[in-house]
C-alpha cells in the first residue's frame, strides 16, 4: 500500500477546499438547508457540471473520470469539512454503484452519463428505517426490511405488462429533490420472496414526496409514498440485489467515514482557534494543561479515524478489505461525536446555544449514527462477517 497521494488527488483537495471556503461558510450552509431543494443549486452546479465530482468514480465510457473510490472519498472529506449539503453522497455513494452493478446495458447507457455530468440526481428509497440493514452494515440484509410479504414496506406487483409499486419509504436521503428514485421493493409473496430494485422518475403518477424535519438539516430526508406507481425494473429479476446492496454499502460507509473525518477535523480546528482567543484569569484558556490534554486526545482520535478511512478507500473493491468501510465508519463516527462534544463544551456558554455553529457538527454526528449506525452494531456486523468469533456469531441489538 502506497500511502502517498498523487498530485491529481492533492489537486482535488485543493480545489474543493478553495471552493467550499468561499461558498460554503456556516451561514451559507444554514441558508442552503432552508431552500426547497435542501442544498445550494448553484454550488451543486459547480460541483457537478463544472468540476465533474459525480463522475469521479464512474467509468470513462459513461462520461466519468475512471478514478477510484479514493478520489471520491477525498472529495467527500472536503465536503464534510464544510458540512456541505449536496446530493453527491445519495447519488454517487448509494445509487450510482447499484445502477452500474445491476442495470442493463441500456439502463447504464441512459443514466450513468447524466449522473456523471451532474445532470441527474438519484435517491435510494428503502422501506421503513432499514437503510443500514439494507446495506448490510449493521445486520445481514436477508430479513424483512423490504416488506417480507406482510403489510408495510414497499410491495411490487406485475400490471399492464410492467411493474407497479405501492407502499411507503421513510428517511430517504435527498428523496424530495432527486430526479430519479431507486426503490427497493418486495415481490413474490412468501412462496418466492425476494427484493428487487426499481426506477421511478420524479414525475411518476401516484408518487408523493414529502420533505421531513430531520435532526441534521444538512442531510435532508423525505418520506416517499407510492400509490400504485408504474416503475421500471433495474436489471434482471434473477440479479443478486442483496449482494449488490452489501457491496454498495461498504463503499457508502467508506465515503461516510471520509465525510465524518473531514467534519471532525474542522470541528477540532475551530475549537483550537477559539481556545487560543478566549481568555480566562488573564490568559487564553488553551494554555491550561487540562484543555491541552482534552484537545490532544481529540486530535489522536481524529487521526486514527483518518487512517482507517484512507485504508478503507484504498481497499475498496479488494476482497482483503471486505468490511473495511464499516469499521472505518464506526471509527469516524466516534471521532466526530467526540470532536463535536468537545467543541460544544470548550466553547463554554455560547457553545451550548443551538444557534452556534458547533451544533452543526453535533447534529451531523448524531444524525449519521442514527441513519447508518449505531457504532457497536457496525463493529459487531464487521466482526461477524470476518468470522472473528466463529461462524455461529450473531449480531443482536
Automatic annotation (TrEMBL):
Superkingdom in the source lineage: Bacteria
Cofactor dependence: FAD
EC nos: 1.-.-.-
GO molecular function, one term: flavin adenine dinucleotide binding
Gene3D superfamilies: Acyl-CoA dehydrogenase/oxidase, N-terminal domain, Butyryl-CoA Dehydrogenase, subunit A, domain 2, Butyryl-CoA Dehydrogenase, subunit A, domain 3
Domain Acyl-CoA dehydrogenase/oxidase C-terminal: residue ranges: 255-383
Domain Acyl-CoA dehydrogenase/oxidase N-terminal: 6-118
InterPro entries: Acyl-CoA_Oxase/DH_mid-dom_sf (IPR046373), AcylCo_DH-like_C (IPR036250), AcylCo_DH/oxidase_C (IPR009075), AcylCoA_DH/ox_N (IPR013786), AcylCoA_DH/ox_N_sf (IPR037069), AcylCoA_DH/oxidase_NM_dom_sf (IPR009100)
Keyword Flavoprotein tagged: yes
Keyword terms of this UniProt record: FAD, Flavoprotein, Oxidoreductase
Membership in a protein family: Belongs to the acyl-CoA dehydrogenase family.
Name of the protein in its database record: Acyl-CoA dehydrogenase family protein
Amino acid at each position: 500500500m502506497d500511502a502517498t497521494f498523487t498530485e491529481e488527488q492533492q489537486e482535488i483537495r485543493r480545489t474543493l477546499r478553495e471552493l467550499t471556503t468561499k461558498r460554503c461558510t456556516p451561514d451559507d450552509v444554514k441558508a442552503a438547508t432552508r431552500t426547497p431543494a435542501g442544498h445550494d443549486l448553484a454550488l451543486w452546479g459547480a460541483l457537478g457540471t463544472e468540476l465533474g465530482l459525480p463522475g469521479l468514480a464512474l467509468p470513462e465510457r459513461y462520461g466519468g473520470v475512471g478514478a477510484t473510490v479514493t478520489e471520491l472519498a477525498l472529495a467527500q472529506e472536503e465536503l464534510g469539512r464544510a458540512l456541505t449539503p449536496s446530493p453527491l453522497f445519495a447519488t454517487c455513494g448509494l445509487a450510482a454503484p447499484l445502477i452500474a452493478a445491476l442495470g442493463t446495458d441500456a439502463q447504464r447507457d441512459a443514466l450513468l452519463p447524466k449522473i456523471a455530468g451532474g445532470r441527474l440526481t438519484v435517491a435510494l428509497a428503502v422501506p421503513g428505517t432499514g437503510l443500514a440493514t439494507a446495506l448490510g452494515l449493521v445486520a445481514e440484509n436477508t430479513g424483512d426490511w423490504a416488506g417480507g410479504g406482510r403489510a408495510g414496506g414497499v410491495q411490487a406487483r406485475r400490471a399492464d405488462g410492467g411493474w407497479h409499486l405501492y407502499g411507503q419509504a421513510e428517511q430517504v436521503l435527498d428523496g424530495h429533490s432527486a430526479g430519479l428514485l431507486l426503490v427497493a421493493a418486495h415481490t413474490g409473496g412468501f412462496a418466492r420472496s425476494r427484493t428487487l430494485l426499481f426506477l421511478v422518475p420524479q414525475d411518476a403518477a401516484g408518487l408523493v414526496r414529502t420533505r421531513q424535519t430531520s435532526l441534521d438539516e444538512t442531510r435532508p430526508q423525505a418520506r416517499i409514498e407510492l400509490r400504485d406507481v408504474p416503475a421500471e425494473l433495474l436489471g434482471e429479476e434473477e440479479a443478486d440485489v442483496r449482494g449488490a446492496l452489501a457491496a454498495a454499502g461498504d463503499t457508502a460507509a467508506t465515503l461516510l467515514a471520509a465525510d465524518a473525518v473531514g467534519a471532525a477535523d474542522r470541528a477540532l480546528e475551530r475549537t483550537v482557534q477559539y481556545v487560543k482567543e478566549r481568555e480566562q484569569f488573564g490568559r487564553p484558556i488553551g494554555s491550561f494543561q487540562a484543555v491541552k490534554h482534552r484537545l490532544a486526545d481529540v486530535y489522536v482520535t481524529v487521526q486514527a479515524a483518518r487512517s482507517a478511512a484512507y485504508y478503507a478507500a484504498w481497499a475498496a473493491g479488494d476482497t482483503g478489505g471486505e468490511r473495511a468501510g464499516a469499521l472505518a465508519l464506526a471509527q469516524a463516527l466516534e471521532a466526530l461525536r467526540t470532536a463535536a462534544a468537545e467543541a460544544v463544551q470548550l466553547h463554554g456558554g455560547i457553545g451550548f446555544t443551538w444557534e452556534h455553529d458547533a451544533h452543526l457538527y453535533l447534529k451531523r454526528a448524531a444524525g449519521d449514527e442514527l441513519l447508518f449506525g449505531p457504532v457497536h452494531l457496525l463493529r459487531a456486523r464487521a466482526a461477524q462477517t470476518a468470522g472473528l468469533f466463529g461462524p455461529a456469531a450473531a449480531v443482536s441489538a
